[in-house]
SPG16 protein
Amino acid sequence: IVLTGGDDRLWKTWGFPDGNILLTGAGHTDWLSGCCFRPSGTQLVTSSRDTTVRLWDLSRRGCILTLRGHSRAVRACSWHSCGDFVASASADGTSKIWDVNSERCRYTLHGHEDSVNSIEFLPFSSTVVTSSADKTLSLWDIRTALRAYTFQGHVHSCNHATFN
């Protein structure tokens, strides 16, 4: 299954390799910037310019939780490998770690001087990497919400970072 999110404010799942649309989800009020399956495959998370992060249950075919707290567009989202936490990166210069069981923000990561454009968890760890329009990448320990290291060297906005 392939998951996509688009400017049409929708997410879609597609059968692979035939390309049939399996499910479509609507609920965001602006374009989608990110989407990610829960490791179990039964749910997904989406991020949007509408400043929200939404969790969707595939069997219910609907939104089960809307996470609010960013003041500008949410640029990216990521699901932790344990399935209990979602991360979001925002144009407001912050990232958030959301506890999906308690349905609240566990930590807000402050430190970038411009839009945070991506966020990814290092699998099976408490580390995330963020990329920013401030031309830096940062590693964070989500247990403490502290920045552990900053990488500098881009001459323009850094739009994405990931682990191997």
Q: What stands out?
A: The CA atoms of residues 45 and 55 lie 5 Å apart.
